[in-house]
Amino acid sequence: MSKQRILGHFHESAELKIQAAERLSQPVSQAAGLMFAALSNGNRILACGNGGSAAISQYFAAALIGCFERERLPLPAMALAMDTSMLSSLGNDYSFTEIYARQVQAFGQSGDVLLVISSTDSCPNVNAAIEAALERDMRIVALTGENAMSMTAMLTDTDIHICVPHDRVARLHEMHLLIINCLCDGIDVALFGGDAE
To answer: What would the DSSP string read from start to end of 46-90?
Structure first.
């Protein structure tokens, strides 16, 4: 792999972050506020995605249950991709499309938040989870790229869509991780203060 190709990755990633910062800061702030409000009311955050997005959802749940950058009591969050026995059982007994929706039906309650993360538009299992969450009067925070048309169409006016203006999966994962860090920081700032603005 050439040095020039590596530099290209760095430059593309940095340019996307700079270009998207102003556009995404408002919905990220709104999502952090929504999540904090839900947690403050005794609700929880469920998170899901596929592949790399599932890993990012696990990172998010770990940061809330453990700590992000400040020591605090654990916050109720659950990554729906964590339990391989659950996933394989639901996939076998029902279908792969149902692996998240069944968990939302089991654990989700009115006032909870479902965080969905996707870098593609072909996620019928994530779409089914959104549908199940809406049926349970949950709020949705959708972290997507610009190609997630079917998912976007499912969202209501009370949901929050954080759409990264790109369609390359590697760049989307990088941006989604940055946004997750912002959400975790926003929740901690709401808990402890320290926001300069």
So the answer is: EEE-STHHHHHHHHHHHHHHS-SSS------EEETTS-HHHHHHH
Question: Are 173 and 56 spatial neighbours (Cβ–Cβ below 8 Å)?
Answer: yes
* Mean pLDDT, residues 93-111 taken together: 96
Q: What is the dihedral of CA 133, 136, 137, 138, to 10 degrees?
A: -40
The number of folded domains in the chain is: 1
* β-bridge mates for residue 179, sequence order: none
pTM above 0.90, yes or no: yes
- 11 falls within a domain: no
Which residue type occupies 87?
A: L
Give the confidence band of 195 by pLDDT, cuts at 50, 70, 90.
low
Q: Which CATH number belongs to the domain containing residue 174 in this structure? A: 3.40.50.10490
Neighbouring C-beta atoms of residue 68, cutoff 10 Å: 19
Query: Is 49 exposed, middle or buried (CB count within 10 Å of its CB: 0-12, 13-18, 19+)?
Result: buried
Contacts of 55 (CB under 8 A, 6+ apart): none
With beta carbons less than 8 A apart as the criterion, state whether 121 and 139 touch.
no
